[in-house]
Design goal:
Layout lengths: L4 E6 L7 H11 L4 E7 L6 H9 L5 E5 L6 H11 L4 E4 L11 H9 L4 E5 L6 E3 L3 H18 L11 E4 H5 L10 H12 L4 E5 L1 E3 L10 H20 L8
Parallel strand pairs: 1-2, 1-4, 2-3, 5-8, 6-9
Antiparallel strand pairs: 4-7, 5-7
């Protein structure tokens, strides 16, 4: 049985949001947790806010990205900094449904290796955001569920909880951005790990600039989509590089 959650938050100039995000996190997540905030550069306007909060909140730490800059490498840095246990990836813009974290943690302790926050299952929801992005992610998640049997309707959502065990068994090949969560879920599914989902509500940010790059990253999402379809439908088992 696991006793706590390691929460990984990649940031890039989230000074407008991070205080409210950490406050909501403390109010809504009852499971004991430690928060690791990963940043790219020393001038990031998130840092002064976090350093001030760290004086009274001892479960927060700052960690500089040890790879090249970017959200994918920040998340990888967070993964590598944690030796064991349970890891939840959230964004710093108040978009994720933090009130679902305790339920996700319960699923981990029931024996699941990955728990996905799902916008597209019953009781899930997406509020705001670009219509094209919303349509494409819904189509990808729902169709991949029916084509392959992967037990989530929302494989593209970054709001996922992992055991370190499953992360240790996966060689991360993504080199774009948020397709990282999709890659991990698909590889874990193909390796036979247990995956489930809980309904979650995603809300578009109200402050700051989104770092999501739809047209730049779309081919990378499509690559992992095709890996899953080929592996399940045609028996072309994917071999990690």
């Amino acid at each position: 049985m696991y006793n706590s959650i390691n929460i990984v938050i990649p940031v890039y100039d989230e000074g407008e949001n991070i205080r409210d995000t950490l406050s909501e996190l403390e109010n809504k997540i009852k499971t004991p947790h430690h928060v690791c905030i990963i940043y790219d550069f020393d001038e990031d306007n998130t840092l002064p806010v976090v350093k001030n909060l760290m004086q009274t909140q001892k479960n927060i730490s700052l960690l500089k990205n040890t790879f090249e800059s970017g959200v994918l490498n920040a998340i990888k840095t967070g993964f590598e900094s944690i030796d064991d246990g349970v890891i939840l990836v959230i964004m710093a813009d108040l978009s994720d449904d933090l009130g679902k974290a305790d339920e996700m943690f319960m699923k981990i302790n029931e024996g699941y290796d990955i728990v996905c926050g799902s916008r597209y299952m019953k009781e899930g929801k997406q509020i705001g955001g670009p219509c094209v992005k919303k349509l494409l992610s819904r189509m990808a998640g729902v169709s991949l569920h029916y084509l392959t049997g992967i037990p989530t309707y929302d494989v593209t959502n970054s709001f996922k909880m992992y055991t370190k065990k499953v992360l240790n068994d996966i060689n991360i090949e993504s080199d774009g951005g948020f397709e990282l969560g999709m890659e991990i879920a698909i590889k874990a599914f193909l390796k036979g790990y247990k995956i489930t989902e809980v309904p979650s509500v995603w809300r578009d940010r109200s402050a700051g600039e989104s770092r999501f790059r739809l047209w730049k990253w779309l081919p990378k999402y499509m690559y992992w989509y095709w890996v899953a379809v080929k592996s399940v439908s045609f028996g072309d088992i994917y071999k990690e590089r």
